[in-house]
Amino acid sequence: GSPMRGSGSRPFPPDFVWGSATASYQVEGAVNEDGRGKTIWDTFSHTPGKVHNGDTGDVADDSYHRYPEDIALMKEYGLKGCRFSVAWSRIFPEGRGKPNQKGVDHYKKLVDALLAAGVQPFCTLYHWDLPQALQDKGGWQNKDTAQALADYAGYMAGQLSDRVPQFMTTNEIDTFVYVAYDQAVHAPGIKLSRGELAQVCHHAVLGHGLSVQAIRAHAKPGTRVGLAEDYHACTPLVDTPEGIAAARIAMREENASIMNAIMTGKYTDLYLKTLGADAPKFTDAEMKTINSPLDFVGMNCYTATYIRPAQDERGYAVVPMAKSHPHAVSTWLFVAPEALYWGPKLSSEVWGIKTMYITENGCSGADTVMPDGQIYDTDRVAYLRNYLQNLQRGISEGVPVKGYFLWSLLDNFEWAEGYGQRFGITYVDYQTQKRTPKQSALWYKALIARNAL
Ligand code: GBH
């Protein structure tokens, strides 16, 4: 029979990067300091009715000042990597023009502190905090924003690449396009028509491609460039050969407007046909830019898109989640641990990806401090353990995932949900800014220490 598989029997590769992820507007606070310009999230969060409870990122975790304390926590947990993002408007307060030295210096200090703690920095250049001045000129509806992103990305990579070895252009184009410009739940909160939306999405992927080129032009040779995207982790609901084949097709088609376009330089026939007259306007040269070669792909993976075979033109169908499918406190966060097996496996196969990172995975809870001062987040521990078992399975079969960044180091500003949903492995008391490791932090630390599940 098979041996008992106890703790430590499922190893990860020796150089696996265990990390955590955060984003500027969600943790920094200090919104009026050192010349930072206004962003669309300042505007949005200060507009009544847009964010749960009227919360804003004005203070957040105050990490702009408390980053040494946060890095001490990373060191305490044994983290090998830190994914953080740069606030564009701290560098270019108006989105473009003359750089703000105080902003640049902040990130140099942050990175130096990470390096001193033995933590590898992974820098995201754009995690949704678009300078308001660019929104005033149309935001992502204006194609010039794509070039503005690239100019900023190239400049910042040039400033940091002597100490930062890897950059991500963008975080979740999917979210900052569709949730912002279709559902209007995120800043700038505009509802567009189908055709306008497809054009916004095209500008965003173009911004990514132009940024890849700008980073390569300005960064130290050998700097690695990728992106972090929450593309659909198409997962066969029934893992027969037919189910798996359907999930492969779905991986392309469900991600046609972003990841498949970036990885292949083409919008699929089905995507263009489905949109018809609403298809985006694009040139061959733009598609080539969008397809600029990457050194790695970062996958943000929280849940699965379940797929079944279908006898139609698509060859697959998306299986909707059952009403009773378990989810975290976030109602979109359906628990589907096998997404972390099938997502990286099928996407790396379909797009020929050689190096991947899981740039986000995590679980929201309604954590509370118990009378003994502890936070017993059993839900988060169970979620993480199950997802990571699936990731380990894939890696042991050869799926090229080189690291994992848990979302998040700290409870933080959860966008439209404000501070009501907690994703941290560290509890933050927003009255005092006191940080307390939750049980999940102790669990993650133990996992990292033995590098095995
Ligand atoms: C990531 O988004 C983000 O990168 C990160 O900033 C965020 O804090 C973290 O995950 C946790 O949410 O309002 O019902 O339309 C994850 C993907 C896509 C999930 C948008 C929430 C909105 C759901 N997100 N989605 S809904």
UniProtKB/TrEMBL annotation:
Coiled coil: none annotated. It is an enzyme of class 3 (hydrolase). GO terms for molecular function: beta-glucosidase activity. Its EC number is 3.2.1.21. This is Beta-glucosidase. InterPro entries: GH (IPR017853), GH_1_N_CS (IPR033132), Glyco_hydro_1 (IPR001360), Glyco_hydro_1_beta-glucosidase (IPR017736), TAT_signal (IPR006311). It comes from the Bacteria. Belongs to the glycosyl hydrolase 1 family. It catalyses: Hydrolysis of terminal, non-reducing beta-D-glucosyl residues with release of beta-D-glucose. Pfam families: Glyco_hydro_1 (PF00232). Keywords: Carbohydrate metabolism, Cellulose degradation, Glycosidase, Hydrolase, Polysaccharide degradation, Signal.
